[in-house]
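Notes to self after the Tuesday call (sharing in case useful).
The group wants a holo model before anyone commits to mutagenesis around the pocket. I volunteered. Ligand is 2-phosphoglycolic acid. Logging inputs and output together so the record is complete.
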Amino acid sequence: MARTTLIAGNWKMNGRLEEAQALGRAVAVGSDAAFAAGVELLVCPPAVLIPPVAAALAGAPVKLGGQDCHAAASGAHTGDVAAEMLADAGCSYVIVGHSERRADHGEDDAVVRAKAEAAHRAGLSAIVCVGETRAERDAGRALEIISGQLAGSLPDGASAANTVVAYEPVWAIGTGLTATPADAQDVHAHIRAELRARFAGETAQAMRILYGGSMKPGNAAELLAQPDIDGGLIGGASLKAEEFLTIAGAAGA
Ligand code: PGA
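Result:
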């Protein structure tokens, strides 16, 4: 079964109001070509900028996502945002378990899994991030680490409709270093095998696995041509509409 390529922009904590609106508008203007090529586009702005970016995207075939959510639907959690609130703001996706959240906020697999369950409860698709550090890769432990993260972070109710896996080697994020297409494909094939071992065969076959970590116009085509790379989770290059749309163009080529 063919998987729809997903090109997702993770804006992280970047952009003030005017920049975010301008970026949203520029992505919207260029989005028809990606849509026509069958590529799904997603942008994940900082939480408070979701409503103005939603307005900037109005009518364009670009989906909206949050960068994180709390596991609870409401309550005494100062500073947090519920998955339901993201849904109310027009989001259809939320990233959970990004390595920056795991590192900066001490989120472990159990927390990530609870957040993915919250996303499902709110009707959102969870983009569940996994990936090894440089030291873990150098020690030959990359696949073992990723297996553990998948086992701990993916809820039992994960399906191709409500979950996307993002493989983001920590050493490649924001560093300009990228996994080679062959190395990335090896990990993606491993992730697909793990999905097959845990879920129904059709689920494993249909669930999308994104690559993230310094994906840019110059390396996107080769990465996206790999059989188990179903899209990209793009940080730095998603802050420039032209680069983001060029990557989407490489996906549709
Ligand atoms: P990068 O970030 O493209 O800037 O490496 C990717 C990510 O962290 O999602």
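Two things stood out.
The pocket of 2-phosphoglycolic acid is lined by residues 10, 168, 173-174, 212-215, 233-237 (CB under 6 Å).
The first helix runs from residue 17 to 36.
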